[in-house]
Structure formats: C-alpha cells, structure tokens
Amino acid sequence: MQKKLIIGYGNPDREDDGVGWHILEQLAIYFGHPVSVLDYFESDEPPANPHLVFSLQLMPEMAEPMAAYHAVCFVDAHTGNYPEEIRVRPLESSYQSASFTHHLTPESCLALAETLYGHAPEGLMVSVRGYNFGYGTELSPQTTALIQQAVVHIIDWVKQT
After folding, report:
1. Average pLDDT over residues 12-35
2. What is the dihedral of CA 9, 10, 16, 21, to 10 degrees?
3. Tens of pLDDT along 47-87?
C-alpha cells in the first residue's frame, strides 16, 4: 500500500469543530495504530500507514512531510455552507487566499508541497456538518450521527488509493 496521510483538524474544545479528532479516534481503532498530534514532524520513527495526524489548524510547515506521501485526506467540520451533511471531494493543488492570516486551505497545503518540495500528493477533503460550535468537548447528537459514515468514506478511500 502506498503511503497515505489522514489529517484531522479543528478545535476539540469547540464542540462540533472537533469532529476531525473524533473521526481520527475511530480510524485509529479500525487501523490499530494511534493518532499523532503534530510531533510526528520531529520523529525518527517511520509512521504507520495510513498515518493519522491531528492538528488544531493547517500550517505551512506541514508541506514538507506531506510531500512524502502518495495521498492525503483532510478531515474537518463545516457549518452548513454545503448542501451535503458529509461532503467528500477530490482536491487539486492550488493556492487560495484566505481572509484570515491563520487560515490555510487544504488546496494551499498541497500547492506548497508541490512548489517547495516537488510533489503534491493526491488530495481528498471530507467535511462533516457541525451544528454546535460553542465551548465544550462533546459533539452534538446530529454530528455524532455522521461520524461512522465519514469513517466508512475514509476507509474506502484508503483501500482504493
């Protein structure tokens, strides 16, 4: 199997914004290996395949390790700006400007990997509908009900790529 990276991101202290973490926990059970929390950049140990990583947000320094993978799946919450409760779509490497200086899109991460390190992995976005974004660590019942379906999409992607 070619090397795959699954990055869940968001804030687990902001209710449904943490759905990426909850999905990674389920994937860790399925694949039988733990979730890394950004310290994987400094590790000399080869990561498991697929490599499961959680971060609060996407960052430019992710481009270098990302370039070493065949494919990467980004997992995050959305606020209902898409018609689907779970939006699954392939990604293309392209720079996208953001209205916030701390916001980096998955497409921009891929573009940085390609520009700086000569390879953009195949990309996939799995975005799960969030309903509550207040302070707390529990997911809403609506978002919780979507986790297993998102996990199945990601497992199928891992098997097919």
Report:
1. 96
2. 40
3. 789 999 999 999 998 999 999 999 999 999 999 888 999 99
Largest Cα separation within the chain, whole Å, is: 42
Tell me phi and psi for residue 94, to 5 degrees: -160, 135
50 in Cβ contact with 31 (< 8 Å) = yes
User: Which domains are seen in the chain, by residue range?
Assistant: 4-160 (3.40.50.1450)
Closest-CA residue to 68 (of 55, 88, 49) = 49
Question: Can you count the helices (H) and strands (E) in the chain?
Answer: 5, 5
Residues in the chain: 161
One-letter amino acid identity for 146? L
Residue ranges in the chain assigned as alpha helix (H) = 19-31, 63-66, 106-117, 141-144, 147-160
End-to-end CA distance of the chain: give it in Å, rounded: 8
Distance from chain centroid for Cα 94: 17
Name the phi and psi angles at 51, rounded to 5. Answer: -85, 125
